[in-house]
Amino acid sequence: MEYYYKEGELDSNYSKVTSAIFLADGTTVIFMPNGPAPRYDINSELHDWFEVQIDVNGSVNPPNIHGKDLFLFYVTDKGIMPAGFKGDGFSPFDTYCIRNKGYGCTAWVVYNENMDYLHCDDLSWDGKHKCD
Fold it and tell me: How far from 101 is each of 46, 67, 76, 78, 92, CA to CA, in Å?
C-alpha cells in the first residue's frame, strides 16, 4: 500500500502494515502497529492507543492521501478518537491538517461535516469552520 501526505511526500509508515480489511464497498480499514505499549496524552492523562485508518474509496483507488480519502482514528481506553480533535496534542488540526501532513483532519470531517480545509487555511476549532 502506498499513501501520501497532503504535500505529496510518500508516507513510509505503510511498509509496516500487517493487517487490513477490505470491505465490499471498496473501503479499506488499516491497522497500524505502533511498537510496544505506545503512550498518548489525551486531556492531560496518559493512555495506551493504536491507530486505525480508513481509506474511504479503497487502497487501490487514488488519491490515497491523508485528509482526502484517508482518515486516522486513535483507539484508546477512552474510546475511539478522531485525529485532530480539539486538544489533540499528537496531531493537532492546525499543524497536522491545515499546514502540514493531512493526518490531523479526521476530527474536522467528523464534527464539522466538511473538508473546507482543502480550500482555505484560516479555519480553526475556536473560529471559522467553513470557507466563505
Answer: 24, 8, 22, 25, 11
